[in-house]
Request: fold
Amino acid sequence: MKDQGIKRIRKFSSLSSTAKDFIDDGLLFSLLTPDGKEDDSAAVEAVIQKSLSKTALNLEDTALLLRVRKPELQEKILEAANRLKRNIYGNRIVLFAPLYLGNRCINDCAYCGFRKSNREAIRRTLTPSLIRKQVETLEDHGHKRLILVFGEHPRYTPEFIADTVRLVYSVKKGMGSIRRVNINAAPLDHEGYRTVKQAGIGTYQVFQETYHHDTYRKVHPENTAKGDYLYRLDALSRAFESGCDDVGIGVLVGLADWRFDVLGLVAHALFLQDRYGVGPHTISFPRLRPAQGITMDPFRKVSDEDFIRMVAILRLSVYYTGMILTAREEPGVRDRLFDFGVSQIDAGSRIELGGYTEIGDAQQVIQREQFQLGDMRSLDEVIRQLVKQGLIPSFCTACYRLGRTGEHFMELAIPGFIERFCSPNALLTFQEYLTDYASPETRVEGEKLVNRELAKISDEKRRELVRKRLEQIRTTEDRDLYF
Ligand code: SAM
Ligand code: SF4
Reply:
């Protein structure tokens, strides 16, 4: 108990200089109360137009979209999200894989298989040689971007996280390499963020889980580290103050009213934009999945239709952000959601500790995982599906490697940026996959897509440059070419 007290004091002394609880539950609920405007198609259309002109929506705008009831207006929102997504991100979908490093945890989150009171969980922290093996296997599949996931535990210090990141970057197998390592771990203090930043991390993600105070209290016991709402809400402000300008926010969908949590996410994005001039690089919206020993009773189940609306509204509200959809979702929902705003997905994921080398394709070992996955397709199968839908699978890491993070990543909303940089880079990384890792069937369909997309590049000089580089990848061992 005494230790807990000391920990809390240390934490409060390490809040950001601007730490404040900017979530006003009463205000957010009042914005969700119907006032008739939500049935007014002109008002809804005005908000949609604002978003399509690449202006971040405020809370009132977002709440109006959340209140819409008329099916034809809801349809308009979905169409607009699709249009905005194509305008900003083109038809690329960025692919990554999660790598779970350790499931020891001092917290007791009511929804998570890693919670400390789950005595059945098999606790494990990967050793350096096991990490190496997992990364080699991921590289053998064609992955270039990973997110490392950790429980919260005294063993998982910033130094431990930083060493793991360095180790992952150092693993090279065949033509493989990991070019971007993102992190999903407990909130750190300023010094901790500086330590992980030096190791060359990409995005640092901390999900608030729910912005609704009462629900937060119910699912995160107060005597645990995660029970401190403000410390968590302030996590990414500390990251910015420590030089990490590439951060990801998220909510666990199904804990509280999803509309409330959309407003929470938008409030958080606006807060970061206002304070640091940069909004979140990504937004995640994991939907609650069954986990070991957890009943779903206390949670608010969110239907597929509402989930799709949620994604579409977030797309419109925070036009510049990357939207991450994970393999928690089943294939049918995933494939539908590509149209409404998702820009990044994981594929071929295994979330059991050591799962990439130790678990057979179809099995899952529930005692070793945080929750059950919904999409067990291989990376190659998911890629084939993307190609079928006319989407370019991308492993691009160019912006981060060229320092286009922080305020510069917002440049991607600038007209022409996608055509000059993003689409060519997506094609080059996809060509690497096709040449080095794809199944014969995926290669045939993929090459057709590459040729179709190449023809779409309107600038003749650029098109010729991309064509030459694609050929260079097909015929030589030159890799990692980007604009
Ligand atoms: N331990 C760190 C933390 O809590 O911030 C790292 C993240 S945790 C391993 C990754 C995320 O998984 C959590 O932030 C939560 O949103 C999500 N998660 C936990 N339990 C889940 C469940 N049953 N279904 C779906 N997602 C879950
Ligand atoms: Fe631990 Fe994170 Fe799971 Fe909570 S969500 S029990 S902090 S791993």
In short: Residues 132 and 171 are 6 Å apart (CA to CA). The chain has a mean pLDDT of 91. The beta strands are 92-102, 145-150, 180-184, 204-205, 247-250, 282-284, 322-325, 344-346, 392-394. Residues 105, 107, 109, 112, 114-115, 151-152, 226 surround iron/sulfur cluster (ligand 2) (CB under 6 Å).
